[in-house]
Amino acid sequence: MCSNRRFHGNGLVVSLGIDFGTSGARAIALSSTGQILAQTQQAFDSKSAADPQGWQQVLWQLLADLPQDVRQQLQGIAINGTSATVLLCDRAGNPLTAPLLYNDARGGVGLDELENIAPEGSPALSATSSLAKALWWQRHLPAEPLSQARYLLHQADWLSAQLHSQWGISDYHNALKLGYDVAERRYPDWLLALPIANWLPTVKVPGSKIAPILPEISRRLDLPATCQVYAGTTDSIAAFLASGAQRPGEAVTSLGSTLVLKLLSPCPVNDSATGVYSHRLGDLWLAGGASNSGGAVLKQFFPDSQLSHLSQQIDLSQPCPYDYYPLPQPGERFPVNDPAYAPRLTPRPDSDVAFLYGLLDGIARIEATGYRLLQRLGAPAVQRVYTAGGGAQNWVWQELRSRHLRVPVCPAGATEAAYGTARLAQSGDSLYL
After folding, report:
1. pTM of structure
2. Which one, of 173, 170, 176, lies nearest residue 157 by Cα?
3. Exposed, middle or buried by CB within 10 Å (0-12, 13-18, 19+), for 407?
4. How would you class 339 by CB atoms within 10 Å of its CB: exposed for 0-12, middle for 13-18, buried for 19 or more?
5. Is residue 10 over pLDDT 60?
């Protein structure tokens, strides 16, 4: 499935961002003024979502579907992929086994041992982390593929190398859950002492130059031979980069199936007890957490079409009488980190409008509590919140959230992760300096 939309503008195309998500991929080309000039997308079939060869075919198709005059002006390309989706490859970059996807938790069997090695609060201390998956491979793979293993690569790393052929290069956004120390910009000693240390990729600053595209790709796809490939990022960071948030105190809330909060801070904030960790963005830090509350629990009770209709009937002049904590099932990550935390969804009123009011208000209170927690842990007070995700279109919810947050709430400048990755390729590693 392919979609190609063309935008006309006067700016020169300088960058292309490519976003590999869970259901498909999208490419967006930006002019030097930040205008979208073209975009293409490809949906994954049931096999290609977990198949590196399928990813590769989608990559070539995304590039080929761009208008020729856009391809001929490209000066930079960057790719984002799903966080902690990893491949184990040989010296030539050939996958030795199927990738372990972002939500694959089989590495949890060795988590107790990892907790005795990695420092408390490390983002690598998770059953789905890149490091947990690497250690699972090291323990469970047969001897033959294990003896050929040379590079542990994230999805974005492997796809970028298809363009420049320099294997074993990652970025510090993807490498965070591998155990990379983003404050010191090096692998810590405890990680280098592990048996998988020789698999670790070289880590670059996101947006820094890697190499020009390969000559054969330049010829085949009619791309300039001078087009540079830049170190990429993860899908969630790319979505933040698209938002327009630039200063400490500015934040992005993603209202998708779950509720994801990210707040720009001058210092890192990490607290494993409450599910908080920080990514580095140049000289700033992106602190945040993810709640299991969000759109998924709303859809348990109302279809999208009904949500919009019922929302418009909510009387915001009346205070919400319900103290809900909406969760789709027991278990919460942030601002409460408790795998047994119970949903609070009673009493349910007879009126669907009143019930939806309670759900939306409950999620808004979780968001506000999350930002207050980040401030208590050392981040700045939130000053403005940009909103991404499907819930950004609900103005009643937006007004509720603004009341609880007591700061302006506005739609994100752009919501596509590919747009944020194109900005990374356009601005290089100076985006947040």
Report:
1. 0.87
2. 170
3. middle
4. exposed
5. no
